[in-house]
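Hey, I'm writing a tutorial for new members on how sequence and structure tokens pair up, and I'd like a real worked example in the thread rather than a made-up one. If someone can provide the structure for the chain below, I'll link this post from the tutorial.
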Amino acid sequence: MESVPQIVPQEGKLGMTVNDLVFHKHEMAYGAEILEDALKTMPPSTQESMDSWTKALKTTKHAVVKFPNGATASIITGVPQTEKSGFGFGNVMFAKADERVPTYEISFSIPGRDSIILNYQTPDEVNGILDELARLPA
């Protein structure tokens, strides 16, 4: 397995959008090959049921943004899909109801406050969050 590099946060600024984010391979993507190898030893029905989930893991990308005011955002996305894993591993869904519209998981923290995680955010919703974070006072 490839070693997982540390993601260096990019500098956040007013007007930043999803299109400005620099995405890197997410650490889950690095482990997807190990999972695929393990699945080869399992019954074909198990392999089939996990196929879309491992494919989604392999495409998962991650961006980290640090704003001058101390706020940070972590944004995760992958190939849009709406399938869920039935094995209790959680969901790897990067679409709401329409697979043509990608969604993002965004977690953000503001100094002195609890972190917040929002799932299934559209690009416009992420853009709004990034704008709010950039506008916070230092």
